[in-house]
């Protein structure tokens, strides 16, 4: 979807790992809409090399930054402003990782070292990014920061493990920092609560296939794709949403407001041999 919504705007995109990543699609959408961007990811992810394909396509430079390192983030802000020739207008935080999820360690018998890493990488990193941006005065007035969340922040999905707690913290940071950055510099901070999406991070959650299908059947519009999420992020970066801040916005085809759907009831009746 291209309408030059971001013409003349500059931004930083975190988290494009491969072509399935929500950040990858968002980079493509932002550039198709006229933006100039810098891409960033953890040094270990850059070593995969995939991001260079995207960088070429988007005519963007890549700067490595571990989102749990304040020094890396300070460097990222300075270098991005040098490359882009000034402050940025938008930042996408599309970062998530839980060592407990990766190692299938159950929530009720968690490893707390891992738990702290989950919170640091997946939630506190948003605070670090915002703090580094504020310190460097790297975002223009009316700029927009978007982070990606999931409905497990509000309701329990057992396979989501400690990522649920991380998302609750992430959404809270968006509200808290959004308040401060709004009064200080008119910078907006929101989270987008996205449908289950087939990506490296998404597919790592136990039972992902089943709850992907479940959400598809529950949502009146079906699951939102990564491409649709990317277009929504582009809109949130644009001037059309300039009074929107401190919100968690459900981008989920209606899942969050559906109690049960006829398709789920039919499936259960079939399973019970009633049809
Ligand atoms: P992905 O695996 O493509 O992206 C996750 C990214 O986080 C990767 O690029 C990875 O390199 C980066 N990352 C991990 N540790 C990092 C660190 N220390 N510093 C910097 N970057 C780091 O998967 P996806 O799905 O595109 O994930 C993006 C965001 O969307 C995450 O916040 C995820 O929780 C969220 N989300 C995903 C859903 C899904 O079903 N895939 C649903 C709702 C939200």
Question: What can you see in these coordinates?
Answer:
This protein is an alpha/beta fold and 275 residues long. The chain has a single domain (10-274), classed as NAD(P)-binding Rossmann-like Domain (Rossmann fold, 3-Layer(aba) Sandwich), CATH 3.40.50. Helices cover 46% and strands 16% of the residues. The chain has eleven helices and seven strands. The protein has helices at residues 22-32, 43-46, 51-58, 70-84, 99-102, 112-135, 163-185, 200-203, 208-218, 226-237, 262-271; strands spanning 10-14, 36-41, 61-64, 88-93, 139-149, 188-194, 248-251. It has a seven-stranded parallel β-sheet with strand order 3-2-1-4-5-6-7, sandwiched between helices. Helix 7 links the parallel strand 5 and strand 6. Helix 4 runs parallel beside helix 6 (112-135). The longest helix is centred in the middle third of the chain and has 24 residues, at 112-135. The protein is globular. The termini are far apart. It binds 1,4-dihydronicotinamide adenine dinucleotide.
Show the helix and strand layout.
Blueprint: E1 10-14, H1 22-32, E2 36-41, H2 43-46, H3 51-58, E3 61-64, H4 70-84, E4 88-93, H5 99-102, H6 112-135, E5 139-149, H7 163-185, E6 188-194, H8 200-203, H9 208-218, H10 226-237, E7 248-251, H11 262-271
The chain binds 1,4-dihydronicotinamide adenine dinucleotide (NAI).
């Amino acid at each position: 979807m291209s309408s030059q919504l971001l013409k003349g705007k500059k931004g930083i995109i975190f988290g494009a790992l491969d072509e399935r990543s929500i950040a990858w699609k968002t980079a493509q959408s932002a550039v198709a809409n006229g933006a100039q961007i810098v891409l960033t990811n953890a040094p270990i992810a850059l070593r995969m090399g995939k991001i260079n394909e995207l960088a070429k396509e988007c005519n963007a430079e890549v700067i490595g930054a571990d989102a749990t390192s304040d020094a890396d983030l300070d460097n990222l802000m300075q270098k991005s402003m040098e490359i882009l020739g000034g402050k940025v207008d938008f930042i996408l935080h599309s970062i998530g990782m839980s060592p407990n999820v990766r190692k299938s360690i159950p929530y009720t018998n968690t490893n707390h070292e891992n738990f702290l890493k989950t919170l640091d990488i997946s939630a506190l990193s948003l605070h670090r990014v915002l703090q580094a941006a504020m310190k460097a005065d790297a975002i223009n007035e009316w700029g927009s920061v978007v982070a990606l969340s999931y409905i497990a922040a509000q309701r329990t999905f057992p396979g989501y493990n400690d990522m649920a707690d991380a998302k609750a913290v992430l959404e809270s940071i968006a509200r808290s920092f959004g308040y401060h950055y709004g009064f200080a510099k008119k910078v907006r901070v929101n989270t987008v609560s996205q449908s289950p999406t087939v990506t490296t991070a998404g597919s790592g959650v136990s039972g992902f296939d089943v709850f992907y299908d479940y959400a598809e059947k529950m949502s009146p519009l079906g699951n939102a794709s990564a491409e649709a999420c990317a277009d929504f992020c582009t809109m949130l970066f644009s001037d059309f949403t300039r009074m929107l801040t401190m919100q968690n916005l459900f981008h989920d085809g209606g899942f969050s407001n559906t109690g049960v759907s006829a398709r789920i009831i039919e499936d259960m009746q079939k399973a019970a041999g009633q049809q």
